[in-house]
Amino acid sequence: MNIIVKDLYFYYKEGEDVLKGINLEFDDRCTAIIGQNGAGKTTFVKLLKGLLKPKKGDIFIKGLNTKETTVAKLASIIGLVFQNPNDQIFKNKVLDEVMFGPLNIGQDKNLAFENAKKALELVALLQKADENPYDLTLSERKLISIASILAMDTDIIILDEPTIAQDFISREKIKNIIKKLKEEGKLVITITHDMDFVAENFERTIVFNQGQVLLDGPTKEVFSKEDILKTAHLEPPYITQLFKRLGFSETVLNLEEALNYKIL
């Protein structure tokens, strides 16, 4: 397993648990973590990254206990793309920004340069390599943040709200990146409020509610449990809701499934 979480508890203020009794295992399946604001999603991924330490329980990343491992050591294994790129970007040149992570985890300059170029090609922004990131649009800065993590070539990539401020073209870029990472055998985790994006790209979905796991399973199965989702103030993707209202019993996740749906 890539990640094993055992009986995890965490609080910022004693007596007010943000996460309580989390037990999860992550394999190579692309996994979405969903839930309302305050459900504990962001805190959970910060714990995975080692930015926070469990108050009780353990998290093992590729066999390493995060309690006993430095953030620097974990950085070569697990990469986190922040929700707000302005919290991540600090260099004055796009190429320098994308090279920073690889250099920081010990890649030599030539390898870091090549990996940065490949990552910028993947997000279709190589032509902006010499520009200042803050001269780019918010959408482009988000893609630069993604490229910065891709260039580090970590086995695990966490995307925090990847579709915020993204137009259709940029969403398709991110979709293709996730597909490529999956083909390379990497674990991609996202935390998001975008249910349609989840349905299109993620095989497994975990629902957090009030600091606990409410649902966990194949995405189609999770989105079929509309009544349970309502308790977490969540709704299935729009196309799933449409097919239900039309009276179809099968859960349809996305446009491709809808187009291939056979009406007897």
TrEMBL record:
<keyword id="KW-1003">Cell membrane</keyword>
<dbReference type="GO" id="GO:0005524">
    <property type="term" value="F:ATP binding"/>
</dbReference>
<protein>
    <submittedName>
        <fullName>ATPase component STY3233 of energizing module of queuosine-regulated ECF transporter</fullName>
    </submittedName>
</protein>
<dbReference type="InterPro" id="IPR003439">
    <property type="entry name" value="ABC_transporter-like_ATP-bd"/>
</dbReference>
<feature type="domain" description="ABC transporter">
    <location>
        <begin position="3"/>
        <end position="235"/>
    </location>
</feature>
<keyword id="KW-0813">Transport</keyword>
<dbReference type="GO" id="GO:0043190">
    <property type="term" value="C:ATP-binding cassette (ABC) transporter complex"/>
</dbReference>
<dbReference type="InterPro" id="IPR027417">
    <property type="entry name" value="P-loop_NTPase"/>
</dbReference>
<dbReference type="InterPro" id="IPR015856">
    <property type="entry name" value="ABC_transpr_CbiO/EcfA_su"/>
</dbReference>
<dbReference type="GO" id="GO:0042626">
    <property type="term" value="F:ATPase-coupled transmembrane transporter activity"/>
</dbReference>
<comment type="similarity">
    <text>Belongs to the ABC transporter superfamily.</text>
</comment>
<keyword id="KW-0472">Membrane</keyword>
<dbReference type="InterPro" id="IPR050095">
    <property type="entry name" value="ECF_ABC_transporter_ATP-bd"/>
</dbReference>
<dbReference type="Pfam" id="PF00005">
    <property type="entry name" value="ABC_tran"/>
</dbReference>
<dbReference type="InterPro" id="IPR003593">
    <property type="entry name" value="AAA+_ATPase"/>
</dbReference>
<keyword id="KW-1278">Translocase</keyword>
<dbReference type="GO" id="GO:0016887">
    <property type="term" value="F:ATP hydrolysis activity"/>
</dbReference>
<keyword id="KW-0067">ATP-binding</keyword>
<keyword id="KW-0547">Nucleotide-binding</keyword>
